[in-house]
From TrEMBL:
Pathway: Amino-acid biosynthesis; L-methionine biosynthesis via salvage pathway; L-methionine from S-methyl-5-thio-alpha-D-ribose 1-phosphate: step 1/6. The keyword Chaperone does not apply. This is Methylthioribose-1-phosphate isomerase. The gene is mtnA. Its EC number is 5.3.1.23. It comes from the Bacteria. It comes from Pseudonocardia eucalypti. Keywords: Amino-acid biosynthesis, Isomerase, Methionine biosynthesis. Signal peptide: none annotated.
Length: 342
């Protein structure tokens, strides 16, 4: 089953996606026939994760240009592009399909979106292989590894396979996963709900971890690596990812544990010089002050709710993409971000 895909129809097709707000309780698919529905699904995180958002953006353009008059379609596409600001893949997906439409019409837009879907599947496979090979080099002599992760970077965040969780899945497939530790990822619990659901389906050994326990668990020893995904990687290697990732990187550095970012090349944003320029989505108070519609804070309380943070390049041991392994330039004696290591 794919997280997101295109369903061809007799006249026009539509998008089908797994409604991630219903997991882990129910595995339900959502049929999306309009850009309005897609923007709503993105806003409430029914579809989420940078690679999946990229494909959603591209398929959304295909839907718009196939079903709406040109001017209306462009307005809808602009709304779609702005639906979430941090993951570069959403804008990239929209821009890629839009460029194809401008040169070749609606069929070309759909073809570009489907290419993006297929490239994501191949990229995730390549990252899984590369990540496992790198871990073997970083953890010599360790047969079975214990790894920690945050948010959900599995198949649910992409199309068919994941990024950081794709590496975990590959370790498990090779019999080399001792245990995965999934940070629960407050406030929307992508780790507890989605990563745990994927690990359960894999049959992997895992524990869910309260976010605030991660630092002391790392400091206690026994974790071989921290693996995280990315929403946008700036040209200098600074990496935006789910809120809490920066704290994990600090704890990993304190504990001397390798901290790896696993993300496709499509998440590298050469146009953003450093993390300072990355726009961080603010998701408002309600997600923090309420839980499943029940108020957990006093009436009148407000909350800060940045959905992402930026991990400085110097705290990242390596970035694994589908094409290369790079050590951010701040890592002494290692190649710069644009140099290939492997
Ligand atoms: O708010 P979300 O759930 O879309 O955040 C997702 C993340 O931060 C992921 O780690 C990132 O998009 C990489 S997914 C392979």
């Amino acid at each position: 089953m794919r997280t997101i895909d295109w369903v061809p129809g007799p006249n026009t097709g539509h998008i089908r996606l797994i409604d991630q707000t219903r997991l882990p309780g129910s595995l339900v698919e959502l049929d999306v026939h309009t850009v309005d529905q897609l923007v709503d699904a993105i806003g409430r995180l029914a579809v989420r994760g940078a690679p999946a958002l990229g494909v959603a953006g591209a398929l959304g353009v295909a839907l718009a240009v196939d079903t709406l008059p040109a001017q209306e379609a462009m307005g809808q596409v602009a709304r779609l592009r702005a639906a979430r600001p941090t993951a570069v893949n959403l804008a990239l997906g929209v821009d890629t399909a839009l460029a194809a439409f401008r040169s070749g019409g609606p069929d070309a837009a759909l073809a570009a979106a489907l290419r993006m879907r297929d490239q994501d599947i191949a990229a995730c496979r390549a990252m899984a292989r590369r990540g496992v090979d790198l871990l073997a080099r970083l953890c010599p002599g360790r047969i079975e590894l214990t790894v920690m992760t945050i948010c959900n970077t599995g198949a649910l965040a992409a199309v068919e396979h994941g990024t950081a969780l794709g590496v975990v899945e590959q370790l498990h497939a090779e019999g080399r996963l001792a245990r995965a530790l999934a940070c629960e990822t407050r406030p929307l619990l992508q780790g507890a709900r989605l990563t745990a659901w994927e690990l359960e389906r894999m049959g992997a050994r895992y524990d869910v971890l309260v976010d605030s326990a991660a630092a002391s668990v790392l400091a206690a020893g026994g974790v071989d690596a921290v693996l995280v995904g990315a929403d946008r990687i700036a040209a200098n290697g600074d990496t935006a990812n789910k809120i809490g990732t920066f704290a994990l990187s600090l704890a990993a550095a304190h504990a001397g544990v390798p901290f790896l970012v696993v993300a496709p090349e499509t998440t590298v944003d050469g146009g953003t010089p450093s993390g300072e320029q990355i726009k961080i989505e603010d998701r408002g108070s309600a997600e923090v002050c309420e839980f499943h519609g029940v108020r957990t804070t006093p009436e009148g309380a407000t909350a800060l709710n940045p959905a992402f943070d930026v991990t400085p390049a110097r705290l990242i041991t390596a970035i694994v993409t589908d094409r290369r392994v790079v050590r951010p330039p701040e890592q002494p004696g290692t190649p710069a971000l644009n140099e290939e290591e492997a």
